[in-house]
Amino acid sequence: MSKIALVTDSACDLTDEELKECGARLLPLRIIYADKEYRDRVEIHPDEVYANLEKEVPKTSLPSGEDIEALYRELKDEGYTHVLGVFISSGLSGTANAVKMYAEEHPSMVTHVFDTKNLSMAEGITVLEAGRLIKSGMALEEILEKLAAFQETIDTYYYVDTLEYLMKGGRIGKVAGTIGQLLNLKPIISVNRDGIYYTIAKAKGRKQALLRLVGILEENLAKYKCNVYVMHGAALEEGKALVETIMKMKNVQSMDLRQISPALGVHTGKGLLGICLQRNPL
């Protein structure tokens, strides 16, 4: 009889309670400063990363090989026959590919990696869905088909308050970034079907950009019922205000507020606000 382990990474933005409830094991991404590196959520909290951004912008990296290998040995000792990995977009991180490589050293367990082609709560709700399907007793091949269909119902949109960190991280060109700063252009970024950041809209100033972000959600709510997650990067009060606005809209099935992982936050800086929506038929 098959026994399926569920594995994800710390970009999923799920709480410890949610991870426990869905049975997911967590591989921490790494937050790397000039003098030291930390395991995300294990040795450093997102609040600390955001608080230090003005002093130093760290790099982020995939989980360490030691952590991946240790987890595989643990799963083998616990009698798992299959591993389902649900990870941050392979277009944004090497996590999925690293797990595939280490999985080759453990042929007694069949590993399937599901690339969410997204991050944060888009990844997180996919992990929750995977946990639900595993608990239902469904075969792994069918679970993968269900997750692929579920993935098509999810989109994320982020308002970025400053282009400074995207420029520093090489996510956008310096010329485009400088022009954007001079014109006070605020981008709305999303993740395309290849799992890579792209700019979906621009607006002049914070107020107009947030109105555009809300407008994108309203366009979806006109056609679908949606589970909505508001995500913030050290912008709790603004996040709460956005939640209040969204709660007044029709066709909102559920609503939640989360702090976003440093996996995105270090590339955007403080003031990030995002929306993850999962669409369902009216």
TrEMBL record:
Task: State the protein's purpose.
Answer: May bind long-chain fatty acids, such as palmitate, and may play a role in lipid transport or fatty acid metabolism.
Which parts pass through the membrane?
none
Q: What is this protein called?
A: DegV family protein
Sorted UniProt keywords = Lipid-binding
Is Iron tagged as a keyword? no
Organism encoding this protein = Youngiibacter fragilis 232.1
* SUPFAM superfamilies in alphabetical order: DAK1/DegV-like (SSF82549)
Identify the NCBIfam families for this entry.
DegV (TIGR00762)
- PROSITE patterns annotated for this entry? DEGV
For this chain, one GO molecular function annotation is:
lipid binding
